[in-house]
Structures are given as structure tokens and as C-alpha cells.
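Subject: two folds for Thursday's group meeting

Dear M.,

Sorry for the delay on this. The cluster queue was jammed most of the week, so I only got both jobs back this morning. I'm pasting them in the order they finished. Each block is the input sequence followed by the predicted C-alpha cells. Could you check whether the formatting survives your parser before we put anything on slides? The first protein is the one we discussed after the seminar.
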Amino acid sequence: MAMASFALLYILTVLQAPCPFCLVSAFCSVSIFLLWWGRGEVLKRTGGLAALGLAGGLVWTSVVDGGVVTPTPSPAYADASSALRGGETVAAGAIASAVAPPPAPAVATAPASLLKDLKSLDTKLYGAFWCSHCAEQKEALGPDWRMYITYVECDKDGKDFKGQCKIDGQKLRGYPTWTIQGIKIEGERTIEELQEIVQVIKDGGDTSEL
């Protein structure tokens, strides 16, 4: 029994884990050993003192260093806990960013003077409801563009389709397509390009490359 108790205490010191059963077993083993060795005479013998000191040392090591009262977490556990806490912080930050995204940058819109010029030149914009370039073109013109420009829906499934998607009797090659004072201009255009086109038309310049 004594050998088993000492073996348990040794394992306890290696594992650094609490084990009340091991301590009780060691105490019982030491008590039986003392009673068997001559009713206390073991204290007068060198060997008995050594055995008692060894047992006491193992018990002390198990209680104080083994972590029975206040167990110390292993380095691996501490690293895992730290990583977990770090992960929770990142996750919370990501959620906060998703809830409150940064404001979208303002989109430059056409000045009122350009819109008035386009209206005076009988401008039409041909497009389709599913056309992404058409949507971007409308956004660039600003929220009031319909007050100055006539929009022609060219897809039969579109809300405002009227079957008038031909210029000079010819089908359109793509969207968006413009007519400014009857001159066909293809493709999405920036505000600066529209200003240049309007100026060329107003000045009676060459429109063949517009």
C-alpha cells in the first residue's frame, strides 16, 4: 500500500494536478507504517526519520507545488485563453464595423447649367432597366435629371417601354445611347465629356468624333 501511495504522489507532482485521494492514501500509509514499526520507535531510528521526511516532503510538494489549493494553468492553456480573448475582440470589432459602415463618398452630379443646356438641345437618353451603365449614368446626372432629359426605355419588359428605340430607323447597338440636337452619341459619358459635347454642338463644331 505504501508503494502505491508513493507512486500516486510521484504522479501527482509530475501532472501538477489536485488529487485528494492521493493525499489520503499517503497519510494512511504513513500512519500504518509508524504503528507497525514499533509503536513510535521509528522516530528514534535514522531510517524512520528518512522515511517520514520523504513522505512529508512529497505531501508538501503535492499541496504547495502541485496546485491542490491554487492550481496554476499550464502555458498552453494560458496561450489558448489569450488567443480566444483576442479572437473575441476582433469579432466584436468586425460586428461593430458591419453595423456602422463608413459613409459613402458623395457622387458628383451634373450642374444645373449643363442640365438646362441639354434640355434646350432636346436631349434624349436611350437605355434599358437592367443596364448597369445606364443606372450609373442616371446617378451621375443627379436626382432631377428627368426634368431636363427625355428617357426612352428600350426593353419591352421595362416599365416605360413604348417601342420607340430606333434612331434614324436603325436599331441601337448598345446602351446607353444619346441624341443631343439629333446627333447620336453612344456610351456612358462623364459630366466633363457632356459639357464638352454640349459646347461643341452650341459652337457648331465638328461632331463626327463625339
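Second protein, same layout:
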Amino acid sequence: MRVAFDYLIFSMQQYGGISRYFHELGAHLSSFEDVELSWPVFAHGNSYLRESSNGHYVSIAPDTRIKRGVRKLANATMTKAWLAAHPQDIIHETFYRTTPWPGRHRTVVTVHDMIVEKHPEENPNAVADAAIKRAAVMRADHVICISENTKKDLLELVDVAPSHISVIPHGWRRFPEAAATNLPANIVKPFLLYVGARSTYKNWKNFIAAYAQSSLPADFQIVCFGGGEFTPEEMATLAKYKLTEIQVTQAGGGDAILGTLYQNAALFVYPSLYEGFGMPLLEAMAAGCPVACGDVSSLPEVAGAAAEYFDPMSSESIAAAIQRVVSSKAHAEELVRQGEQRLPMFSWERCAEQTRDVYRKLAG
């Protein structure tokens, strides 16, 4: 069974949840004898592909540092030529396209979330992006959703048959063991960890308000991993609450630093108002880090009993949940124990097996 992932997400992302999903899925699909997986990605800047052993992947050219628009055009042109020479049974599109790839294959699309539809204020191109996603879903032979909540939202917003949708959750992986001595130098006390972008629906400002209006700053820093440098607006938020860049600090880098942070944080706090899945929850659990998150969207589906829940719209609720965990070693340890019990429900091996089942049914 010949299966190809297209180039799109690897051309778009250096790091990111979607490219990580396809990278992990592809690595495990490649172990199946009945799957001949190709990755016709001819120009990319994706770190997961650069760090991989090319022995696991077919048709990946060395990455080129060219502008995204030129990269996209080059990839599209070369992919069409490659498909003409290498017909496929299945193409699993890595992001949303309005038009299909040429050929007599079947098409699979993964829907990761409905953020652009639920939170259009985040994206000036929300209407156009939602239309492209809708077109991709409607023409796909099968759709994979990464959570039951994402499936529910998709069915509410797009007229697609439930029988054309499979729910296949993400997996997780453990980061290498890391010592506290490997922490960035700007971490000088116990810390609460925040991971990822700080856009509106991620609810970073309410997390900062919860922290500032409690007794937490006396004993804990907030470390924000990823998301780039603080913007002027974010600096204004810190100034509003008279917080210093030591109390709320940043860390960047790759998985080695992220793993070190998970393993040494007092608590991972995930204040997001909406997620399609919530992979950082599993990453934190796998690192032995207790978790606190909102009781919203897909997060309870992923975390189960292994999280301290709060109302993400209430800074008081967020602060109270954090205090319940950091003030009780026994409670924090119980959350870690629950996390270890939760993890076997999710794996990249299972994700790959269920995805292969989708391919098999389509390929006949």
C-alpha cells in the first residue's frame, strides 16, 4: 500500500504540533511492512525532518533556506511531477488544500481543531482559512479528528457525514532525563511552566492576572517556553501587574530544553480556552510534572483524572487551582501518579495502527 504525506505543513512550520504529529505518525507507519510511505518534501525548514535519520523517509531532499512563497511553489511543482512518476494509493494531506493532488488515489485529511471557526478574532484571514478547510474536508475520502471534541465541533460547523470521520488521538514521547543544573540561567526559583503561543484563546493574560493577584510571585516564577519574545502588549500586561522579567521570564530552544523544563517545573499550567487535543498535557505527564488546566474543550478528554481543573475565564479559579497543587506535595504526587496511569491510553504506535486501518479500508 503506497502512502504519501504531502509537503505543506513541513514547508510552513519549523516547529509545531501539526508537523510533530505527522513526523511521529510517519516514523511509526514506516515500521509496517504493508505501508510504503513516501514524503515528497523537496524544500523545507522543518526541524523535525532535519533531525531525522533519512533512512526512515523516502524522497526528502535536503532542506533549503528559501523564502516560504518560493518554497511552496517549488514543492507544488515538484510534487506534481513526483506523483506522475510515482502513483500512490493514499495521499494524507498534511494541511488544508482547496484542490486535490492529481492522480487516482484516495485522500485523507486530519482536522486538528476548529480554532479558526471558534476564535476567528485570532486570524485576519479566518473566513478564507475556514473556507479552505471546509473545502478540504468536503472533498476528502476520509477525515481523521484527533479528539471526540474536535469531531463534535466539526460536525456542528461542517456538513460532513459522521461515517466519514474517525477519531484517532495523538501519542506522546518521553524526553531524555535532564538535571536541574541544565535549566536556563534566568530560572532562579521554583517555577510554573507555560508552553506555546500566547494568543488570545490561549488565555495567557488571565494566567498572568491569576498569578499577580495571588501570593504566588513570592515563591514561584512563571517560565514561558516558546511563543517568541514578549510583545509590547505583553510587556504592558506585565507592567500593569508590576511584574518583572524575572518573575515572568522566557525560555526558548528545542526539545532538550523543553524536556528539562517539564521535568523540573513545580506545575505545568495550561490555561487555554480551546484546544483540539492538548499534546502538552501528555508531555508534562510523561515528564512527571503535575498538570493544571481548564475544564474546557478536549482537555478533560485527554487529562482525565490526572489534572487539577479550573475555570479558565476566572483568574481566581486559576490561582486557587495552582495553590491547591503547589501547597500540597501529596496532591502534586497524586496528580503525577494519575498521569502515569493515564499515559497508556495514548501512544504513537496505536495512532499509527488506527491510521493504517483507515488507509486499508480506503485502498480496498
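Two things I noticed about the second structure. The longest strand covers residues 106-111. The CA atoms of residues 183 and 261 lie 7 Å apart.

Cheers,
T.
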